[in-house]
Design brief:
CATH class: Alpha Beta
Number of helices: 6
Number of strands: 7
Strand order of the largest sheet: 2-3-4-1-5-7-6
Mean pLDDT: 96
Low-confidence stretches: none
CATH topology: Rossmann fold
Helix content: 25-40%
Oligomer: single chain
């Protein structure tokens, strides 16, 4: 069973912000590939357990706020007995140019508090991830990540979300290593 975790913050005020790119990616994947929605509530999050192309998958949106995302991931992993190597986390990354995506097998949090929470809760940096570039802030980092992309950035962000969805599908069908070669 594969677990895809999209990072974000709950609440209407955070919808469509740069920091909610993980949530947006999972919602788009559900709409375009599964024709389902993430509606079950448990494990301090919202999730969907389903089958896609013969593979059991879970899509999780932690509702703990970004800095405590790892609590939700750990609870769901323990309940479904999901192995560390079967988790992929999707999140925003200021170190990537707007609209770029990068798949990685492991690494530090790079200062991202959501991925750091997951690393801390799972006691490992060996967490697969899809990083979606939001670019550098020209002003306050907090205002930037909690803001919505401007008119110039929006098309690139939307393109990256679609590319990330294709990467998710490819991971399910062909595995993470194949996807890294194809999408990086």
């Amino acid at each position: 069973m594969l677990l895809f975790v999209g990072l974000g913050n709950p609440g209407k005020e955070y919808e469509n912000t740069r920091h909610n790119i993980g949530f947006s990616t999972l919602d788009l994947f559900c709409k375009n590939f599964l024709n389902q929605e993430i509606v079950k509530k448990d494990f301090q999050g919202e999730y969907l357990k389903t089958n896609y192309k013969g593979k059991d998958i879970i899509l999780l949106k932690p509702m703990t706020y970004m800095n405590l995302s790892g609590n939700s991931v750990r609870e769901l992993m323990q309940f479904y007995k999901i192995k560390l190597e079967d988790i992929v986390v999707i999140y925003d990354d200021m170190d990537l140019d707007v609209g770029h995506i990068r798949l990685r097998l492991s690494g530090s949090s790079g200062g991202h508090k959501g991925i750091q929470s997951i690393i801390d809760n799972l006691s490992s940096q060996k967490i697969k991830r899809i990083r979606i570039g939001i670019g550098k802030s020209l002003y306050s980092v907090i205002e930037y990540v909690l803001g919505q992309p401007d008119k110039e950035q929006a098309p690139f962000i939307n393109q990256a979300l679609n590319k990330a969805c294709l990467a998710i599908e490819d991971i399910i069908v062909n595995g993470f290593d194949h996807s890294m070669c194809h999408f990086n």
